[in-house]
Design a protein that fits this description.
single chain; 90 residues; Ubiquitin-like (UB roll); 1 helix
Amino acid sequence: MSRVRTRELSFELRAGETLLEGLERTGHAVEYQCRSGYCGSCRTALLAGRVAYHEAPLAYLAEGEILPCCCRPTEPVSLDIPLLEIKKQA
């Protein structure tokens, strides 16, 4: 398991969970279309740490960018991703 730090939260990924799955589970705002590394719509900046891909993604990645849809952290990572707004219940 790996520790993930975002703007407002720090959490552990579950066994076998991709970064995207962990971000969704914890209520983060991350866009995606494919979940397999070819469209690039979930592209985000990796502020710290390292990730690995089971298969090399087909989408273009600039230095310091990752695709959460198909990567898994190999060490603690830090991302600039916000939580979704949660409406307060009265």
